[in-house]
Amino acid sequence: xxxIRLDGHxxxxxxxxxxxxxxxxxxxxxxxxxxxxxxxxxxxxKVRCGEPIYGVTTGFGSNADKLLGAHxxxxxxxxxxxxxxxxxLLEELQHNLIITHAVCVGEPxxxxxxxxxxxIRINTLMRGHSGIRVTTLAALAELLNRDVxxxxxxxxxxxxxxxxxxxxxxxxxxxxxxxxxxxxERVPGAQALAHVGLAPVRLSFKEGLALNNGTAQMLAxxxxxxxxxxKLLDSADLAAAMTLDAFAGRSGALREEVHALRPHPGQVASxxxxxxxxxxxxxxxxxxxxxxxxRTWSAQAWSxxxxxxxxxxxxxxxxxxxxxxxxxxxxxxxxxxxxGKKHQPQxxxxxxxxPQVHGAVRDAHAxxxxxxxxxxxxxxDNPLIFPDAADARAIEEQVISAGHFHGMPLALAMSYVxxxxxxxxxxxxxxxxxxxxxxxxxxxPAFLIGNEDGTxxxxxxxxxxxxxxxxxxxxxxxxxxxxxxxxxANAEDHVSMGANEAxxxxxxxxxLAQVLALELYTAAQALDYRQDMLxxxxxxxxxxxxxxxxxxxSNAPESTHxxxxxxxxxxxxxxxxxxxxxDFHAGAAVREAHAQxxxxxxxxxxxxxxxxxxRAMCDWMEERLRGD
Length: 628
Hints:
Blueprint (H helix, E strand, L loop, with lengths): L1 E5 L6 H8 L3 E5 L1 H19 L40 H13 L3 E4 L2 H15 L8 H12 L3 E2 L2 E3 L8 H11 L4 E4 L2 E4 H7 L11 H6 L3 H32 L8 H4 L5 H14 L14 E3 L9 H4 L4 E3 L1 E2 L9 H6 L3 E2 L10 H4 L1 H23 L7 E2 L13 E2 L7 H29 L23 H16 L22 H45 L3 H5 L13 H16 L8 H11 L12 H16 L2
Parallel strand pairs: 1-2
Antiparallel strand pairs: 3-5, 4-6, 6-7, 8-9, 10-11, 12-13
Helix pairs in contact: 1-4, 1-9, 3-6, 4-5, 4-9, 9-11, 9-15, 9-16, 9-18, 9-21, 11-15, 15-16, 16-17, 16-18, 17-18, 18-20, 18-22
């Protein structure tokens, strides 16, 4: 089992993701533990001196004006019967903070989120500005190393003061309360500790506040969401590249010199990645006249027995001389046949603007990663302890109440990402829709199915599901960060809602993954048709009988027509171009992905139940995200 050392300064997103997914131990940096203990000793000394310190000798939030006494007021009631207690009021304050703040609701977070929360909390406490003792911090690390996973319901944080409620669910297990998963079983916290040989912790000065005051939930979910989104961006480029190949589209909009004129980093990166994915394609930038369009199969469509098995027929229209006026230069470059590709030099926006759209989402992702990288090694609790402030003249200069628990830096970054996710899903759905619509799919069959008997729906309803997912994502994209709801009797009068924001983004990556899986599913079917139709035309031309190819021209002039001789010369030129063309295929990276898809989902020649196909595609996408 690998080990990651936590020192409060060098934790990376990749390390946190590795910890989150399990199989990684953490160890605490020795030099930093010295700083941790120094802050705890400093705090203990100030308490003994009677200094008033927020959250240590005062109450919390709106109770900050209440100084703790030397003993419990109830014990002095006339006729009172004081109950013996082993803990002081200062210890009781920390204990009560945890047990009363663990009030979240909803489904529990998955184990990887909780592991990430544990690692984040340990790492920030390692900075030595929180007052926690080394023994308590070591106990928290043991929860992670022994895979005791506190049960943390998903909803209940307002993102300032930090993630109080969910972090209290995390800390309460350390005290022997709450619930946890251990060995795959959900058990009470005390039982979970006993199962791995740990004893409950008794909290000292400020330790409750150190454990539950911070941004660990929103940061953990943000890191995991950004990890997924980074991989989904690559998958979005792959889906786009496969769709571009299936369209036999144009690559000019991807060229390096084009994007040098508007060098947004994400745009440049997406264009470069798309060029790499379609490298080696003989479909992209194909001559217009070579591409036939789909025609419904019939028994008379093909004369050769091998071709009879094809599920399609192909055809072109000839452009007679009378319709070429003003287009002479074009027809000197291309043969005068219209098939599947429209005679236009640019593709639809969902193809031509892929670098701009995908790239903008990449930039949103990069900005959020920059914020997260800072937060991973930040101190986010309150108050902050500066035991080495030698020139301090008052306790207020060494124990400073600040606002690092406020999650707005994360909240706004995730609001940006939250708005970007539906954009990426939307352009994917538009490409999928373009593939199934015979008015826009450049000569492919309607809904990507032969349907010669009129009974097949093909991929029609796949687009419905993608549309429903895009709509759902769009309705969830409204920022939570703009809706502060004050808490703690208005002592905490502005909050970030960053926990909701990050949780939404993590959940939204699931729907985005499914939309991309549906596009890849559809693009693989379209790519098969495009390659098979082109290669069927090539095989027909390679037979050396131009008349067989002429039979595929739907408006060939009659033998007595004045244009007949010119038509025959031009159809011979088309046959020669097809016969001498290389095998028609997608780019190398697209072919590899297509082969992986076909290993899971077969080409659909006739309607079949698609639920298994869709599950297989979504599972494949999750395998890609896990790196399987």
